[in-house]
C-alpha cells in the first residue's frame, strides 16, 4: 500500500478491524504501523471517491491508529505525518499542524517511503510553512529526484502552485544536466512545459 497500489475498501476495512481487535494486547510497532497504513489507504480512497459519509470515520480511524503507534513508538515519522494530514483536513493549517509536520521531519528526514507520502502534503502548504520546514520540504523533493523517481517527482511538481514550482526548479539547478533533462522529458510527457534556463539542452539554450 505504501507504493500506492489499490485495494478494495471492504477488504481493507476487514483487515483493519482484525488489527484493531489485537492492537491493545501489547506494544507491537510493526502491527500498529500496518494498521495505520491500512487506515491511511482507506482515507485516501474515500477522499478520491468523494465518500463524504465515510470521511469522518476514516479521519478518526487514522488519528486513533497514529496515536496508538506513537504510544508504542514515539519516533514514528509516518504517525506524526498522519496526524498532520488529519489536522489539516479537520481543522485547517495552523500551529498544531506545523508541530505534527515538524515532528515527522525530525524523526524521519530521509526515509524515502515516508517522503513519498509527505512531500505532496507539504508542497501543497509550501507558501504557509516556516522557513525551516520549507527547507526540509525541498530536501524531500531533492531526495525523490536523487532516487530517480521521476514520474512521482513530476506529479508532485505538477500539483504544486506556480510559485512553488519555480522554487523546485531553482533547487534542481545544481543537479547533473542529464537528471534535469530526464525530469523535463517526463514533464513534457504530461503536457508540462519547463521554461527555465537550468533545463536548456547543452549547446541549445533556446530549447527550453
Overall description:
- With 208 residues, this protein is mainly α.
- Helix content is 70%, strand content 0%.
- The protein is built from 10 helices and no strands.
- The protein has helices spanning 9-22, 29-49, 52-72, 77-90, 95-107, 112-124, 131-146, 150-159, 162-171, 177-189.
- Helix 3 runs antiparallel to helix 4.
- The two termini are 37 Å apart.
| Distinct helical segment count | 10
Distance between the termini: 37 Å
Helix/strand structural class = mainly alpha
Order of helices and strands: HHHHHHHHHH
Q: Helices and strands in order, then pairings?
A:
Blueprint: H1 9-22, H2 29-49, H3 52-72, H4 77-90, H5 95-107, H6 112-124, H7 131-146, H8 150-159, H9 162-171, H10 177-189
Helix pairs in contact: 1-2, 2-3, 3-4, 4-5, 4-6, 6-7, 8-10
Quickly list its features.
single chain; 208 residues; mainly alpha; 70% helix; elongated
What's the quick description here?
The chain is 70% helix and 0% strand. With 208 residues, the protein is mostly helical.
Amino acid at each position: 500500500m505504501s507504493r500506492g497500489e489499490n485495494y478494495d475498501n471492504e477488504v481493507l476495512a476487514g483487515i483493519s478491524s482484525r488489527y484493531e481487535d489485537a492492537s491493545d494486547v501489547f506494544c507491537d510497532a510493526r502491527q500498529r504501523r500496518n494498521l495505520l497504513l491500512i487506515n491511511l489507504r482507506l482515507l485516501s480512497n474515500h477522499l478520491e471517491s468523494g465518500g463524504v459519509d465515510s470521511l469522518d470515520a476514516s479521519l478518526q480511524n487514522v488519528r486513533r491508529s497514529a496515536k496508538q503507534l506513537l504510544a508504542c513508538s514515539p519516533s514514528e515519522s509516518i504517525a506524526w505525518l498522519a496526524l498532520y494530514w488529519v489536522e489539516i483536513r479537520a481543522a485547517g493549517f495552523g500551529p498544531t499542524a506545523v508541530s505534527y509536520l515538524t515532528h515527522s521531519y525530525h524523526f524521519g528526514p530521509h526515509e524515502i517511503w515516508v517522503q513519498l507520502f509527505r512531500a505532496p502534503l507539504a508542497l501543497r502548504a509550501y507558501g504557509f510553512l516556516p522557513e525551516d520546514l520549507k527547507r526540509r520540504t525541498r530536501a524531500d523533493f531533492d531526495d525523490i529526484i536523487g532516487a530517480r523517481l521521476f514520474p512521482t517527482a513530476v506529479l508532485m511538481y505538477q500539483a504544486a502552485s506556480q510559485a512553488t514550482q519555480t522554487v523546485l526548479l531553482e533547487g534542481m539547478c545544481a543537479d547533473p544536466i542529464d537528471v534535469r533533462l530526464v525530469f523535463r522529458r517526463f514533464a513534457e510527457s504530461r503536457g508540462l512545459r519547463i521554461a527555465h534556463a537550468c533545463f536548456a539542452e547543452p549547446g541549445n539554450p533556446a530549447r527550453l
